[in-house]
Amino acid sequence: MANPTGIGASVRRREDARFLTGRGTYTDDINRPGQTHAVFVRSPYAHARITGIDAAEAMRAPGVIAVLTGADMETDKVGSLPCGWLIHSKDGSPMKEPPHFPIARDRARYVGDAVAVVIAETREQAKDAAELVMVDYEELPAAVTSLKALEGGAPLVHDDVGGNLCFDWHLGDAAAVDAAFAQAAHVAKLDLVNQRLVPNAMEPRAALGEYDRATGEHTLTTTSQNPHVIRLLMGAFVLGIPEHKLRVVAPDVGGGFGSKIFHYGEEAVVTWAAKKVGRPVKWTAERSESFLTDAHGRDHVSHAELAMDKDGNFLALRVATIANMGAYLSTFAPSIPTYLYATLLAGQYKTPAIYAEVKAVFTNTVPVDAYRGAGRPEACYLIERLVEVAAAETGIDKAELRRRNFVPASAMPYQTPVALQYDTGDFAKNLDIALPLVDYDGFAARKAESARRGKLRGIGFATYIEACGIAPSNVAGALGARAGLYESAEVRFHPTGSVTVFTGSHSHGQGHETTFAQLVSERFGVPIENVEIVHGDTSKIPFGMGTYGSRSLAVGGSAIVKAMDKVERKAKKIAAHMLEAAEADIEVKDGRFVVAGTDKALTIGDIALQAYVPHNFPLDELEPGLDEQAFYDPKNFTYPNGCHVCEVEIDPDTGVVQVVSFAAVDDFGRVINPLIVEGQVHGGLVQGIGQALYENCVYDEESGQLITGSYMDYCMPRADDVPSFTVRYHEDQPCTHNPLGVKGCGEAGTIGASAAVMNAVVHALSEYGVTHLDMPATPERVWQAIRRHTPAQAAE
Amino acid sequence: MYAFTYHRPKSVADAVALLGQFEDPKLLGGGQTLLPTLKQRLARPSDLIDLGQIPELQGIREEAGGLTVGAFTRHAEVAHSETVQRVIPALASLAEGIGDRQVRNMGTLGGSICNADPSADYPAAVVALKATVRTDRREIAGDDFFTGMFETALEPGEIVTAVHFRTPDKAAYAKFRNPASRYAIVGVFVAVFGSEVRVTVTGAGPSVFRADDMEAALAQDFRADALNGASVSADGLNADIHASADYRAHLVRVMARRAVEACG
Ligand SMILES: Cc1cc2nc3c(=O)[nH]c(=O)nc-3n(C[C@H](O)[C@H](O)[C@H](O)COP(=O)(O)OP(=O)(O)OC[C@H]3O[C@@H](n4cnc5c(N)ncnc54)[C@H](O)[C@@H]3O)c2cc1C
């Protein structure tokens, strides 16, 4: 009988009971005796010189304990927030890496940049006093958009970064691309904007700093996706606290979408201030503060060209992208528009030559960094929009044009011209599953039916491939990563057979407490209730890299498998001793340790008991205990891939786009928990649809004020905006290089959805001659596009 | 939020008395506009006078050729009231289209019209349905109530107690909602009283207004196609990141057509 909580079982998320009944413990739920509250004074200007700070009146306000500034941090030799990835420009020079202090010193560089912090007995008192801190600003002109920041004479965000250019990087073979373009029968061209997004995790960021005078230990509780990374960056680079005196805890975390990977200034401030004031210091962002200060996502402006021969075979791709970094480099910012973007520009296609240039630009806006998909949605959107334009221009059916250019499954492993080596994938199969699923052949009839109701209808495809499970440390290191990218695990059997798994991955919505426990249940036949997953505390778990880039199962899960391998090896030895058999004769069957060909068997519980109560134990050969640790460094990225198909209906009178159907066919390798995978896909799709139709982060181009600073103006997708999704996956292309054969599913939905929706929108509008529309396809944008292309009505 | 003193009077008279006692008091309806304002520290009243426990401000009554709705009636109550659904179904459906469920469960008619948000829905109904706004001291014709963006004919400290809506022969409200906030980018209320047609527009301008051309066209010929020649000028209409003035002007016509069609 199959294990009901083993691999492949749709076990309901064990953590949900806690979350849905309000029993989770988030950072803001934690309160310490003597705790104080921090409120930041933030710059109301996008760019201003700070000429003076007068805190005297604030200090006299009720309950105020301290008002601290960048100058105080400087006195205490607090460092700059480090950047975790180094990019070199075309000319070999390193990227410009201006300092990024937790509290600004002499200049504020975006609206929301921290200028001072008030620490008081209560949050309200701190807020009251923050209004009394007198900051003298000398307002400076701001460089707000990346295009304007690059123009000659633009205001400089950092005086020593000429032209606001952080780096000018490239990848691929320019000469080969030029040669291919020279021979092209047709070239499709496209200018597109991948708009800036606000991440909007449900739980706002929060941080609680504590200092124990008795032991000299600092503790930071924070909303992080990777507590060890924060410990390393903050301890070693910002505050100078050695690891053994710094504990970082990320308890329940309510969503991150990437925005909680990074080391933020507020974390360093509360940790530093807790020692200074001798009491715990807590800060929790208000929603408007989240809008202003969470690292934003995307923000690319690109030009792309695709060269084809007369049969529509792709010959070469040329891409130039300008990526907005914001005012400072956030932790992983430089890697996003480079190694997580340009390396994916081959997509699913065998385009032989690709060349990409990326200029990264400083602007007076909040830093931009990884946001669900991180570089890969930008790549997918660019390729898939361009392919759609190519199909329209050549008259080749869009499914057929894709099929013609797919890397065939027989070509795997496939080396792309942009550094990656895909291990597996059968892209034609994804399409073959998708076409009947969406009744592609019936589209014309559905379109006619929509037309009878006065509606336009379009169908759009997106095929995607992503590089996940990041990454082999040596490869990442060669590309500029300043950290390793392995994962850790410890599998600890207790004397009575229950298990605690310590993982370096971090769950903030992904369901690890269920999926990871299924791995153990499957392997050792332990009921899932007897498996506890522990994560998020540097004093409990081995050094881990955390969760992002759809890496938890592929890398963290593999580490658990490695640790279980070690447990099994030891358990076999113990079993052999207990059963008086040769070790070689012990087999593991359905979680039981059996002497081959006999009915003599032990459960892992029997063995664990013996390991901890070693009365009958090979003490001369083995140590007591059953507790093993492992680190897993992947051999390659994993390559989830799929085909998304979206159908939209547009009301030409109002421009409203409605997604009427969406099908996602994905290859995630082996699937451990189909229910959780489907949930991840649903969430991802909604996020991708959100970018395509609703979400848009808008700064005023002159003043640099955030116009979309609340949900009154920043439009999040809602449940009634999306249809019921059709989700399918197949498992016959497992990952070849990790023990579970898994590829990852966390970002896939977001990566494919935006392109599929926009392709459907443009298809629906093609009868008006519309060939492209930038995201989000808001009602007004759609209506304007229709109007622009309808001369008769435009005159009205 | 800045600190304030909270009061919960049991009658309009008590509320009026309280209003006179303090330096900078503020009435609290459902709090859907006022509380976010306070949380953002954009207002600093000394005292909040909660109108939620005053029986005189509650309830929906059928009365003298129309409906009287108490000022403290929540949007959800109007939406779900069998009386409203029977007498003026367009009003019930307008209420059902306000914001989201949470907002409808808290927000009140009085709060909505006193706030006079240019993109609020109720103002369109107040003017289209020839309403009378009753206060603690007088009656104000609906036509005179809204005087500008966030401005009304109310005097300082005047409390709205109820709104009397006249029952039209037929009526409908068509709304194009802001996808983010769900307020009206444009809302058009069409109401027919005998030979008179009222077409009121909210969301598009600084305050609710009547579309005279459309009213005239529909009075001649009450069909959506009668609006083909009529339009609203984009001059002076609101413009923001969600909708330009041109687009709003266009939407007024589209929503007017839909409202006429919905009138049956
Ligand atoms: C997310 C969101 C979406 C919304 N969407 C819509 C929408 O789609 N359409 C729409 O029309 N509205 C919308 N609203 C507003 C909502 O309808 C509120 O009900 C309305 O703004 C105010 O009503 P309230 O009862 O909450 O009043 P409050 O917020 O309590 O008060 C508002 C103002 O009115 C005053 N006031 C309240 N009652 C009286 C009274 N009886 N006499 C005198 N003065 C009084 C108060 O002093 C205050 O100045 C939305 C609000 C939110 C938060």
Tell me what the structure shows.
- The complex is a heterodimer of chains A (796) and B (264).
- With 796 residues, chain A is of the alpha+beta class.
- Chain A has 3 domains: 16-22 and 486-632, Aldehyde Oxidoreductase, domain 4; 31-84 and 98-140 and 202-255 and 260-293, Aldehyde oxidase/xanthine dehydrogenase, a/b hammerhead (Aldehyde Oxidoreductase, domain 3, Alpha-Beta Complex), CATH 3.90.1170; 297-470 and 636-795, Aldehyde oxidase/xanthine dehydrogenase, molybdopterin binding domain (Aldehyde Oxidoreductase, domain 4).
- A 7-stranded mixed β-sheet of chain A has the order 3-5-1-12-9-10-11, sandwiched between helices. Chain A has a 5-stranded mixed β-sheet with strand order 7-15-14-13-8. Chain A has a 4-stranded mixed β-sheet with strand order 18-26-27-28, sandwiched between helices.
- Chain A is globular, with a radius of gyration of 28 Å.
- The relative contact order of chain A is 0.12.
- The mean pLDDT of chain A is 96.
- In chain B, a hairpin with a 2-residue loop joins strand 4 (60-63) and strand 5.
- The mean pLDDT of chain B is 97.
- The chains are: A alpha+beta (796), B alpha+beta (264).
- Chains A and B meet through helix 4 and helix 20 of A and helix 11 of B.
- The complex binds flavin-adenine dinucleotide (FAD).
- Flavin-adenine dinucleotide (FAD) is lined by residues 26-34, 51, 71, 98-99, 103, 107-108, 110-112, 114-115, 117, 120-122, 159-160, 181-183 of chain B.
